Amino acid sequence: MLLLSTSSLAGYDINHIFEFVKTAAYDGLDLHISKDLFDTYDSEYLSKLITQHQLPIPTITAPLNSTPEQIELIIKLAEALNSKIIVLQNPRALTSKTSDWLLKNITNLQTKHNIAIAIENSSTQYFLGIFPKNTTTSEDDIKIFKHFSLNTTRLGERGQDLFNIFDQVKQYLAHVRLANYDKKRKYTPLTSGNLPLEGFLAKLKQHNYQGPISIQIAPPFLKAGDNKTVIKNLIAAKKFHEQYFMKLTPTPPDITPNNPSDY
């Protein structure tokens, strides 16, 4: 499922973003919650837009430094919109109160609300962009959350190998935030940067990844404000995804015939 992160079109109202996504023929939206944009957490209004445009919001991305109270409100929003994934930022970078609350309650929250709460890698110097390098509980914490969101541009920012990180987290991968990285510029167009996104998408397909892929390109690179160019650039990103992901065939499992001598 191909989604567009609403932060790609920050500056437009949410209804206009729905219109862009519909015109560019994406499958839905990755709703980036903003504390200053009331429409992004108005469940009644968002439900009307979902019905009007016939586009779902399968994924919600929580803002940085979300508090326990805000996370609980986002979970309620996800239930109202039938969103199945909530993306949270690095819990270890949150306040100790929020981090402790999250690690203590995450399993119950996911089970009770039937929702995946995925940790997204950060651009800070943490193990996998999430946990402090010297922590002894990083693997246990990943197992507690069970779901991971891989942000490609942040890997580029940290100079990490995209394929190596994928191999480390693939069993937990629930969401991909796809963007390129060009020198010090984040969230560049998929074809403009240093990351091997063609090979990465091919690897996702080969491993039969079936979760959402959210394209996130910074508004200046989409030429926000020039609506025709925005549509053109969104369609170009979609074609990139089609070429290197949708049109490939997953690699079948390796089934080696038994040696006749084994019978």
Radius of gyration: 19 Å
Please state the average pLDDT score: 87
The CATH first-level class comes to Alpha Beta
What would the principal axes of the Cα set say about the shape? globular
How many H/I helices?
10
User: What is the annotated CATH architecture?
Assistant: Alpha-Beta Barrel
CATH fold description: TIM Barrel
Numbering strands along the chain, what is their spatial order in the largest sheet? 1-2-3-4-5-8-9-12
Query: What ranges have pLDDT less than 50 throughout 5 or more consecutive residues?
Result: 133-137, 253-263
Derived from helix and strand composition plus strand pairing, the structural class reads: alpha/beta
CATH superfamily: Divalent-metal-dependent TIM barrel enzymes
The biggest sheet, with number of strands, parallel, antiparallel or mixed sense and barrel status, is:
8 strands, parallel, barrel
